[in-house]
Every structure is written in structure tokens, then in C-alpha cells.
Amino acid sequence: MTQPYEFTAELQEAVSSFMQRIPFNQVLGIQLEQLSPEKVIMTLPMKDELIGNFLHGILHGGVIASLLDVAGGAMALIGAFERHHQLPGNERLARLSKLGTIDLRIDYLRPGRGRCFTATAVLLRSGNKVAVVRSELHNDEGVLVAVGTGTYLCG
């Protein structure tokens, strides 16, 4: 009989370390706020290098998509950990190393105005090989800026 899945502090640290070691995430300035089996929350402080519309100081659409993709990928990774928790460590790592975005749809609802942005991702479905994640991006005033649905290869 296999052990039940538990999202331990050690596992949370492993996912956090993995996400923080990605150079692109560092360039953007993405900060992890919460990692759990139910939800991933990340924040992104606004900085001049992320502006897409310089006349209005609006966050670039590519940055919005990237942030939603990173949050979605982290949520898919957590879902994959849960699905593959019974595998030996090296086999689980080999499967999880294949994590990647298959499809990403972003709906831009409002201009990205704000001093800080928060991305929240929840798992819609985690299968043997594919996970589907729903993400939302809000500005620091709580205004919904964009939503995304991502499909991720996860094992």
C-alpha cells in the first residue's frame, strides 16, 4: 500500500527552489507568495523595464502572459508531485523534468496599470501526462487584469 500524499515543507521548499532558480523568473522579478496543493500565488512588482506602453506606463502583455504561465507551471508541478508521489525519487525527478507548457490562452481584460501584480493559479485537472490550470492576474487595487488557461505536460 502506498503512502498518502503530503505536501511537506521539504516538498514546498523543493518547488520554491526550482521556480526561483529559473533565470527568466529572476529577470522579471517574480516573487513566490504561496505554494500549496490548492493554490499558487506569485507577485510581480512593477518596474520600468516591464512597461509595454510607455505613454501610459502599462505592463507589457508578454510579461502578463509570462507571469500567468509561471504561476500555472508551478501549480502543474505541484499537481504532478501529487500524482507521482509513489514513484522512486529518481523516476519522479525524470518525469517532472519534462514539465512544459503545451498550450496557453490569455484573455487580456484591462490594461496592466499598477505598482504590483498578483497571479493566482488553481489546478483544474491533473492527469497522468497533462495538467490544466486556470490563472488570474490582479493589480494592487484588486482589479482583474487578465485570466489564463494553461495546459502543461507533466510526466
From TrEMBL:
InterPro entries hit by this protein: HotDog_dom_sf, PAAI_dom, Thioestr_dom
Database matches in CDD domains: PaaI_thioesterase (cd03443)
Catalytic activity entry: a medium-chain fatty acyl-CoA + H2O = a medium-chain fatty acid + CoA + H(+); a fatty acyl-CoA + H2O = a fatty acid + CoA + H(+); a long-chain fatty acyl-CoA + H2O = a long-chain fatty acid + CoA + H(+)
Originating organism: Pseudomonas benzenivorans
The protein's name in its UniProt record: Medium/long-chain acyl-CoA thioesterase YigI
Keywords assigned by UniProt, alphabetized: Hydrolase
Database matches in SUPFAM superfamilies: Thioesterase/thiol ester dehydrase-isomerase
EC id: 3.1.2.20
Domain Thioesterase: 56-145
Protein origin, superkingdom: Bacteria
Protein family membership: Belongs to the YigI thioesterase family.
